Structures are given as C-alpha cells and as structure tokens.
Amino acid sequence: MRNPLLVVSAVAAFAFGAWAAQGQIVSSSAQNRSIIKTDQVTYLFPAQVSVSAGIPTAVTLHFLIKQGLHINSHTPSDEYLIPTTFSIPDGAGVHLDAATYPPGTTFTLPADPTVKLNVYTGEFTIQARIVASPGNHQLNARLRYQACDNTACMPPKTIAVPIDVIAK
Questions:
Q1: pLDDT tens digits for 130-159?
Q2: What pLDDT does residue 151 have?
Q3: Cβ within 8 Å of residue 82, ≥6 positions away
Q4: Which of 14, 76, 107, 161 has the fewest CB atoms within 10 Å around its CB?
Q5: How far is 6 from 3, CA to CA, in rounded Å?
Q6: Chain mean position to CA 77
Q7: Are strands 157-167 and 135-145 parallel, antiparallel or unpaired?
Q8: What is the CATH number for 132?
Q9: Which of 62-71, 89-98, 121-130, 148-157 bottoms out in mean pLDDT, i.e. has the lowest?
Q10: Do 59 and 26 fall within a single domain?
Q11: How far from the centroid of its chain's Cα atoms is residue 9's Cα?
Q12: What is 39-101 written as a DSSP string?
C-alpha cells in the first residue's frame, strides 16, 4: 500500500505546479495586454494656436509613435491597410481646409522580406490648414491610425488631438 502522506504531497505539488504555470500564463498575457493599452501614438503639440478668423492658416501638428511600433502612412502600400487620417468634427467652429501628410518610409517585415509597407515611425508631423470662425474654440480634432509591431497589428484607434484655437 502506498504512503498516504506521499500521495497527498505529490498531488499538492502537482496542483501547485499547475497553479504556478497558470499564473505565469496569465502574467504573460497581462503583459501583452498592457502593451496594447499604452498610448501607441501621442499628440505632442501645439496646445494652442492663434489664427486670423476666416483665413486659411497652416498649423503643424506633432505626433510621436511609441518605440518598436509603426503606423501605416496616409498612403499605405495596399488598399486593405488602414491609412492614417486627421479630421476635425463638424460644428467645432474650426474647419479643416486641407491636410498634408509626410511621405512614409519603406518598412520590410522581418517575417516576409517581399512585403514592403509605407509607414511612419518615431516622430512625424501633419500640416493642417484650418479656417476658424471668430472666437475661442476648444477643438477636439482626431487622428485615426493602426499601429503594428514586427509581428502583428493592433485594432485601429482614434485619439483626441486637443487644440485651443483662438481666432480674431
């Protein structure tokens, strides 16, 4: 007959090992989720601009992409890829007359060197030409993009681009 204490100890050790392994799996998954939840693209500046009311005015918007990530340019290399776009909601007191996007850089996927993507990395700027009605406008513009790393893309995301537009 087997020693009951030995059997209980073996079962307890097995259960603890399974529980510890599950904790590691959850921990690894949680780490991956925390990467996705962090800001992939951050709006840097300007926080405030002064423009002449009713006159198209160029404003340079500065953004920073998290290290290790890239986003599709405004003119991605394939039609199924989501382009980066800047927009201003209707009724904001400020109208987007035009937006000029930087050219992307060519990025080759390490897993498939035949795939060439047109992307932004690091810091990039968008030249927005805006027209504002007279007054102070707390503009909540938007930047839509899709961030990817070397192996996967995250779901598309839209971030706020807060700018205080003073039009006189």
A1: 999 999 999 999 999 999 998 889 999 999
A2: 87
A3: 72, 76, 144, 145, 146, 156
A4: 14
A5: 5
A6: 19
A7: antiparallel
A8: 2.60.40.1250
A9: 148-157
A10: no
A11: 50
A12: -SEEEEE-SEEEE-TTS-EEEEEEEEEPTT-EEE-SS-SSTTSPPPEEE--TTSSEEEEEEEP
Does residue 70 contact residue 81 with C-beta atoms inside 8 Å? no
Q: Are residues 95 and 119 in the same domain?
A: yes
Same domain, 23 and 67: no
pLDDT surpasses 90 at 21: no
- Give the range of the structural domain holding residue 15, as residue numbers without chain letter: 1-37
Find residue 159's DSSP bridge partners. Answer: 143
DSSP codes of every residue in 123-145: EEEEEEEEEE-SEEEEEEEEEEE
pTM listed for this prediction: 0.76
Tally of residues, the chain: 168
Residue 65 and residue 104 in one domain = yes
Structural domain total, the chain: 2
Would you state the pLDDT for residue 38?
55
In whole angstroms, what separates CA 6 from the centre of its chain?
54
Preceding peptide of 46 cis, ω within 30°: yes
| 111 and 33 housed in the same domain | no
Looking up tokens 């404003």, which residue turns up?
Answer: 59
Within this chain, do residues 85 and 126 fall inside the same structural domain, yes or no?
A: yes
